[in-house]
């Protein structure tokens, strides 16, 4: 049982904009907040809003995957899925991904179970063998760079960092990466690519506008081995019937004749089982022929048993969409709870701003400049774990010390409510301190 602390009856605490308070008011507010903070501390909490993981009841939605073979054999169109072969994956699965993501079926590779794994391998291939047949490997070109829209996904940044590339930050805007910056930066032939989570971005939850997608398709980088890593991790993850629509980059690239400029990635990690779903990669025909030539040296084939059980379980793209509605039903109240608490506790006090995504897994909270680390520490001391400050920026450094990534999916709604309330108290203390410092 979680302890219930009625934060709402914050008697004596000021509900005015902190930035309009005088010193005396701020000191009084600080005193009341510290009292509240101590109350929370005495509860010895252990809450976590750091993990963008599906909650157990979301995973249970796919439990049926484990028993599909009770009713079906292991053959797919005459092929024994228990045996070697079929590098690209079952045709039913490539067709399913083609339909779900609007990609050419013949250029889809169903890899293992993690899309991050496919991204890492793609990076590694380009480093070792080059981005296309005859290209100088990225690893032999001296100092090379990668564009990192931020706040962004820490694991993307760390892949590029692991291979020794210099990470170049690009500002995220409400319509996607700042394309003026991107268009300028790609004039440098040392810039080899860019990370993108185009729909319900991690962590801002924003979806790239049509214009942004078109500008991506029209890029003319100085490096002919420049590649867009288009990670559609949250393409299927709408929270509401009225959801964001992402313009199809592949179709736009067909118009500009540049289908080899982008790699597309996605997975079922947050559709069925995390790290045990289905992952795919796609790109222009030349890129895929080239990649599969190398991949065929790496593996004889992937897990077709898992592919077949997913085909049995879903049967159609429509069934996947219906399944995602069940996820949304679980996730929606969690997002709404966090947003409700931010609105109630932070908005009128003028503290920070946050995104209200229509899908995905994260909310991005921007606190007043210079207060995120202090807020994080205060929360940690209460037993509330948040994603480390800076994780959403290259090299783990938030230049403004203001961004926190909030992951509402894993905790129960009761845990989430308490964690979000604690967080707002910590943010208010940190803001009051900052203002008192002058
Ligand atoms: C943007 C993004 N891409 C990829 C992943 C990981 O995907 P996978 O489990 O397919 O490796 C995540 C997980 O949080 C993510 O947020």
Give structural notes:
The protein has helices spanning 23-41, 56-60, 91-101, 115-129, 154-162, 179-185, 210-217, 249-256, 285-298, 304-314, 317-347, 372-382, 413-437, and strands at 47-48, 75-76, 79-80, 108-110, 145-150, 166-173, 176-177, 191-196, 227-231, 262-267, 279-283, 353-354, 363-366, 384-385, 403-406. With 438 residues, it is α/β, with parallel strands linked by helices. Strand 8 (191-196), helix 7 and strand 9 form a beta-alpha-beta unit. The chain is globular, with a radius of gyration of 23 Å. Pyridoxal-5'-phosphate binds at residues 52, 114-116, 153, 197, 202, 231, 233, 267, 269, 274-275, 279.
Summarize the structure.
With 438 residues, the protein is an alpha/beta fold.
Number of domains: 2
CATH class descriptor of the largest domain:
Alpha Beta
Which stretches are poorly predicted, pLDDT < 50 over at least 5 residues?
none
Helical segment count: 13
CATH superfamily of the largest domain: Type I PLP-dependent aspartate aminotransferase-like (Major domain)
Spatial gap, N to C terminus: 42 Å
């Amino acid at each position: 049982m979680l302890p219930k602390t009625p934060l709402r009856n914050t008697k004596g605490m000021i509900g005015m904009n902190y930035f309009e308070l005088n010193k005396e008011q701020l000191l009084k507010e600080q005193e009341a907040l510290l009292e509240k903070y101590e109350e929370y501390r005495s509860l010895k909490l252990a809450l976590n809003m750091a993990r963008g993981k599906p909650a157990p009841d979301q995973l249970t939605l796919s439990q049926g995957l484990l028993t599909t073979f009770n009713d079906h054999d292991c053959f797919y169109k005459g092929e024994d899925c228990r045996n070697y072969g079929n590098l690209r994956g079952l045709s039913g699965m490539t067709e399913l991904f083609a339909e779900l993501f609007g990609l050419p079926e013949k250029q889809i590779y169903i890899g293992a179970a993690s899309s991050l794994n496919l991204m890492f391998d793609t990076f590694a291939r380009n480093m070792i063998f080059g981005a296309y047949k005859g290209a100088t490997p990225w690893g032999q070109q001296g100092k090379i760079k990668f564009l990192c829209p931020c706040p962004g996904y820490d694991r993307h940044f760390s892949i590029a960092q692991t291979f020794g590339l210099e990470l170049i930050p690009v500002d995220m805007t409400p319509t996607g990466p700042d394309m003026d910056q991107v268009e300028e930066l790609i004039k440098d032939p040392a810039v080899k690519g860019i990370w993108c989570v185009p729909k319900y971005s991690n962590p801002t939850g924003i979806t790239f506008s049509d214009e942004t997608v078109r500008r991506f398709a029209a890029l003319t980088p100085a490096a002919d081995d420049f590649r867009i890593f288009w990670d559609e991790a949250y393409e299927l993850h709408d929270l509401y019937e009225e959801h964001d629509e992402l313009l199809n980059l592949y179709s736009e690239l067909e118009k500009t004749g540049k289908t080899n400029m982008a790699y597309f990635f996605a997975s079922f990690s947050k559709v069925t089982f995390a790290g045990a779903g289905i992952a795919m990669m796609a790109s222009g025909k030349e890129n895929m022929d080239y990649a599969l030539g190398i991949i065929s040296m790496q593996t004889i084939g992937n897990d077709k048993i898992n592919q077949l059980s997913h085909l049995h379980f879903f049967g159609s793209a429509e069934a996947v969409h219906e399944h995602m509605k069940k996820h949304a039903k679980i996730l929606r109240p969690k997002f709404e709870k966090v947003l409700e608490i931010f609105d109630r506790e932070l908005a009128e006090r003028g503290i920070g701003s946050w995104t209200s995504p229509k899908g995905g897994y994260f909310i991005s909270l921007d606190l007043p400049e210079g207060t995120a680390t202090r807020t994080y520490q205060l929360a940690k001391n209460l037993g509330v774990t948040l994603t480390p400050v800076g994780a959403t920026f290259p090299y783990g450094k938030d230049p403004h010390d203001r961004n926190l990534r909030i992951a509402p999916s894993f905790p129960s709604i009761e845990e989430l409510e308490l964690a979000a309330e604690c967080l707002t108290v910590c943010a208010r203390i940190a803001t009051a301190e900052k203002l008192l410092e002058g």
